[in-house]
# Entry
Amino acid sequence: MAPVAATAAILAALPTNMPRMVATGPVEVVWNQTRDACPGKNWAGHIGEQPDSMPLAWHNPLTNQTSLISATDWGTFATVGPSLKELQRHDCSHRVYTSVNSTLPWTFANKQWVQSVHLRPDGTGTCLIHNEFHGGLVANLSLCSRSGPKPCLYW
# Structure
C-alpha cells in the first residue's frame, strides 16, 4: 500500500471523536541553530545548544508570554513572545531548565531534557523530565549497561 493510502486508511479507521491535527498555514522555521543558538559549549565541547527532542510551547497568562523550547541537556533556553505567531527573540539570558548532570545513577538526576509542560492559571507549573544516565561519561565502566569492547556506547 502506498504511504498516502496507508495514512488515509489509518485515519479512516480512527474513531470520529479523536482529536485531529490540521495544518492551518505554510511550514515555517521558528528556530534556526545557526542563527539562534545561545553561545557556549556543552560538556563534550560541542555547540552547547543541540536540541534533540521535539519542540514544545506554553503560554503564561500572568505575564502574557509564550515560550517555545526544544530540549537539550546543556540548558534549555526559550524563544519568547506574546504568542506563537509573535515569537520575538531566543532568550539566552535565562535558562528555563538546567540539567542536574549528577554522576550517581541512583539519583535519577543525570542528563535531563524537558519533555512536556503543564502551566496552571496561577502561573505555577509542572514539567515531565526525561533522564538518561551514561556510565561512560563518569569514568566508571562498571556503571555501563553491557560489557564488550565499547560497553558504554549502548545506553
Observations:
- The two ends are 35 Å apart (CA to CA).
- The chain has a mean pLDDT of 79.
- The first strand starts at residue 55 and ends at 60.
